[in-house]
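Methods — Computational structure assignment.
A single polypeptide chain was analysed. Its primary sequence is given first, followed by the predicted tertiary structure written as structure tokens.
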Amino acid sequence: MLPVRPFAFALLPLWALTACGETPGMDATSDPALEAAPYPDILPQNALPKAPKGRLTENSEAELEARGARLQNRAKNL
């Protein structure tokens, strides 16, 4: 088994070299229209859109089980 310390010292220069390279194409993703666009307004909390209410109710579990049973019966009939 290779000792850890020499292995780490061997990888350190290689890891440092990867930080020296330029990432190609990073400036190509810049859109001038996006850069010129204004920042959105900051809204107070009461003006923010409301999150939709949950669709689950007290009867949701029974409804899902009944629907599953109906689908099973339908599959058997096919």
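Note: DSSP finds three helices and no strands in the chain.
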